[in-house]
Design a protein that fits this description.
The chain is α/β, with parallel strands linked by helices. Helices cover 35% and strands 13% of the residues. The chain binds thiamine diphosphate. The site of thiamine diphosphate (TPP) has 14 residues, from helix 2.
Length: 416
Amino acid sequence: GDVKYHLGYSGDRVTASGKKIRVVMSSNPSHLEAVDAVVEGRCRAKQRLRSDTERRKTIPVLVHGDAAFAGQGVVMEVLNLSQLKGYTTGGTIHAIVNNLIGFTTGPEDARSSRYCTDVAKTIEAPVFHVNGEDPEAVVYVAQLALAYRQRWKKDVVIDMWCYRRWGHNEGDDPSFTQPIMAKLIRKKKSVLKTYAERLLAEGVITEQDVQAIRQSLEEQLEKAQSAAMAQPKDPTIDPGSWRWQGFTHEYSFDPVPTAASRDTLAEVARAHAALPDGFHLHKNVAKLLERRAQAVEGDEPIDWGTAEAYAFGSLLLEGTAVRLSGQDSRRGTFSQRHAVVKDMETGQPYIPLNNMRQMGQPGVPGQEPGDLGEDGRPRQARFCIYDSPLSEYSVLGFEYGYSLADPNMLVIWEAQ
Ligand SMILES: Cc1ncc(C[n+]2csc(CCOP(=O)(O)OP(=O)(O)O)c2C)c(N)n1
């Protein structure tokens, strides 16, 4: 949502079972739902950096408003990314704080569907509609959603029905626009109160317990506020861990040495001529790869596609991973790239640039890109190249998020 928060943050929390969990909140602009794809990209990059191939250790959670979830097109775009090979994060938990209103607009003017979550039906995600006034039901549904996500690696949606007691902001009065609902809400006791009453009636807690819990919560809030006020100008938010160390805002236009040696280029070139035994290559592509393999030897001018392949290949050999995504990027819009080739008999894909050396495994000690492989040569980094769906907003956001989590990888979104 818009006013939920803006500034990103990260910190460690200790769970009830004593385990440590890192919680990272992405900076969130006012433009509702724009952050969704950014979170997905960040999450995917973190999974890669930890070689979390099962995608169980880093979990994206998106918090939405009901009006924005139904109204913003990027929500559908991001749902559509959820099971794609190049973009899946192993399932996102969507939590909708459904206060039945968007600014001043009611559901009857906000959507044509019955539920604000109906767009999630496009990917057949399960939706749990839950009463926000029943905290135990909310906790139960949250646990269920997490279990579902971990088991099936798919998106799941929690639609928490609640209400907004006050206006959209401090100067607002909800009875201007929703007089009947505002009247009903005014009569409602707070969730804290009704839940405490319920537990008291059930004999689960005593009045003293209620007071103690309330006091401890208030103390925590007071303490946090005093800490924030003691240092109002510089809350010093860790922008993304040690991976950003050494990067500065200063920029220089001075040329930097980027040349690769002829030996390196020759190794990249050879990879294009070395297909697996029995691979049935399209005859036109075979000619192109052959030219690409030979180009480094002669004095002929090098074409764009070849130069690009050499550039990516030399980075990979140096241990810098490359991610390139966009519409039709694997072949290349103008048939210039052919970074992924297909076997004409089986349809199986093959990526020459991922078969130069033994592959490095990020986050696996001793097997990182640059560490020696079994053949005694440094392992290469991976070329992550994907065709994107026919979307721009979500894909660009995704790649931006990806680049935030891994500033050392070359991350490219290719516009068609
Ligand atoms: C893309 C975009 N359009 C319009 C706005 C202005 N705006 C801010 S909050 C809001 C209503 C959001 O309603 P909802 O999604 O239900 O979330 P809530 O604020 O009720 O939690 C609007 C229209 C915005 N921030 N972003």
